[in-house]
Amino acid sequence: MFNSISEAFKKAKKENRPALLTYTVAGDSTKKKSLEILNSISKNVDICELGFPHNTPIADGGQIQTSAYRAIKNGIKIRDIFQIVKKFKKNKYSKPLILMGYYNMIYQYGENKFLNDCKKSKVDGLIVVDLPWPENKNFAKKCKKNSISFIQLLSPTTSKARLKKIIKDSHNMIYYISMLSTTGGKLKVSPKKILFNYNEIKKISPKKNCVIGFGITEKTIDKLKKADGLVVGSAICKEITRSLKNRQNPVINVSKMVTKLKNKIL
Amino acid sequence: MKIKKRIPLIDQHDKLGFWGGKFGGSYIPETLKKPVDDLTKKFSKLRNNKSFLKKKDYYFKNYIGSPTPFVKLENLSKHLGGAQIWAKVVSEANGGAHKIYNATVHALICKSMGKKYIVGDTGAGYAGKMLSMAAKKFGLKCKIFMGAKDIKRQKPNCDAMRKNGAEIVPVYTGSQTLVDAVSECMRYWVSNCDTTHMCVGSTVGPNIFVKVCGWSTSQISKELKVQIKEEFGKIPKKIKLINCVGGGSSAYGFWSEFVDFPKSQIEFIGVEAGGPKHSKLHAAPLSRGAKLGILHGAASYVCQNNDGQINETESISAGLDYPGVSPIHCFLKDTKRAKYTYATDEEALSAYKLVTKYEKLNPSLEPSHAFAEAIKIAQNLNKDEIIIVNSCGDAKKDRDILKKRIKNYV
Ligand SMILES: Cc1ncc(COP(=O)(O)O)c(C=O)c1O
Questions:
Q1: pLDDT one-digit tens code per residue, B320-379
Q2: B293 CB near ligand 1 (under 6 Å)
Q3: How many angstroms separate the CA of residue A237 from the nearest CA in chain B?
Q4: Closest partner residue to A56 among B32, B183, B190, by Cβ?
């Protein structure tokens, strides 16, 4: 169970580096472009996170908001997102894919139908930003039943007792939020401090794959290399915005950026 | 789904914070779990702490100015020729609206938690103005998040906030109204929850914010119950309590003491914002059949599309211009204890004109929605029936809108 995500971490470990995870928004800047971006970065990425955009995202900063609003304006619907995933998964260089978003969209689509469509389009994992533990217990179980990994989030504010309980209920991957921030904030905590907290989590469960995200850019990624995996999101969304503004092709620019990111963690 | 007797509505939720098993809860990012938990524990201690309660009562009396007047609108009643129309003039409270209760309580909580910074959202600008007042009074630094559209249309309240030393952070995303202000305020709190206390301006948001706000505004009905008894000698046989509903904090506070009365004796009518006549957009999730959804950390009826994107809303009243509503009002709706309807922009304006023509009262556009409903039904009721409208805000803030929309406005 949960093989593809676990395999991705195993492979990175064998190469003595953290796994590289990217976050892009489905439908940014168009349905077609977001698929092209996934396809073009796939060879350098270990796991792709794909956001399903919401217009009231309470935990996202400016860059991801901009991407999300752009995608929604261009007409993206949940069923299109599954189509994007399906097509991406047909690419022979495709990677494990995690959908990430807010609970209302899953709720309106219907939990069961959503999971069913995840399965059909070969989604490997799910992150639901506003469905914390223990509220997520039932849904996480349903995910497991469908062989979809439900990824629990941990934060600097999570108490030790709570950490233990969440990790116990977690699947094969957990996500540590580096600092008190929405996505896209400047890294306001030292990498040393982040890795200290990260190690506290690893002590509780050495075997679980733990990634660090929030505030990671080309400038900061190499300082966190010791983690099992690192997530870059806002920096990529920002690059898409910049490319569009300069009338450049975001696919090429994002692909270049991801190559650079990869080189920094080798 | 059933309402329990003798237990405040704010406490009738289950372990995960849901009223009626499905409204409310706390759909929050992991980072906010701890501050929400801390606040929950703190509040449950403080509300049973004698010295805190004494302090609260002291400020409610001497700072807010309790009780606010309860008056008969003789001329309006006579003009309409049906039920007696009364008003609870909550706009006489310090600052000009009921938002002062929640703001004062949050400032007191913030202080007792040892935090020096307080942030809040605002639509009509009253929640922001009151928070800036309370912050100034208690020596806190204050930031207010407000949609750019609302900053333009509620200027007098913005001037007041600035005068009180608060920083107004304009929000340019989405429809640039209350919904966006609340989102941005929550984002700010995610990043600053270690030093900063957040006040949600109505009975919405994660469970604990619904409770703190409802606990604060319940002062209105506590006063009213005493005033009704003083005025009539007992609680009359037929009363209708009419209140506008944006997030629902004034309505909750206006009704909470009367929940256990049979609805045949004390009826609750909530009036939402119907938006411009003939417009598709509105802010009336309860009365226009919106589906259950999650907005700002709680499940409630929400104006949204099939994909779960939150709909834009439109109302002449910035305070009611919100796509969601308190989970407690969803609970009151589904248990049929309260009835919800809406008034259009035009109906609210006509009501404003009529009320100000006949009475020395100057209700803002929010309570003008409630007056619109009172005016609609009063004529068909008889003289011993009593309508009480919560006149929960003062229209000074609406000066610019009224000037534009009403001929010969002075
Ligand atoms: C005067 C007034 N009434 C009503 C409202 C609506 O909020 P609620 O339904 O929480 O009372 C507002 C909100 O800003 C307001 O300023």
A1: 999 999 999 999 999 999 999 999 999 999 999 999 999 999 999 999 999 999 999 999
A2: no
A3: 17
A4: B183
pLDDT in tens, A11-64: 999 999 999 999 999 999 999 999 999 999 999 999 999 999 999 999 999 999
Which of the residues A56, A151, A175 would you substitute to probe the B interface, choosing the one with the greatest number of B C-beta atoms within 10 Å?
Answer: A56
Beta bridge mates, A22 = A48, A232
Could you tell me if the CB of B96 is within 6 A of ligand 1? no
Residues of B in contact with A54 (CB under 8 A): 308-309
Which two structure tokens, joined as six digits, stand for B137? 């009074």
Domain boundaries, chain A: 3-265
CB B189 within 8 A of CB B119: yes
User: Is 0.95 topped by the overall pTM?
Assistant: yes
Tell me the chain B residues in contact with residue A180 when contact means C-beta distances shorter than 8 Å: 31, 190-194
CATH class of the domain at A3-265: alpha beta
By Cβ distance, the residue of B194, B293, B310 closest to A107 is: B293
Does the domain at B27-60+99-214 match CATH 3.30.70.1060? Answer given as no
Cβ-Cβ contacts under 8 Å for B393 (sequence gap 6 or more): B90, B91, B96, B97, B98, B124, B126, B319, B363, B364, B366, B367
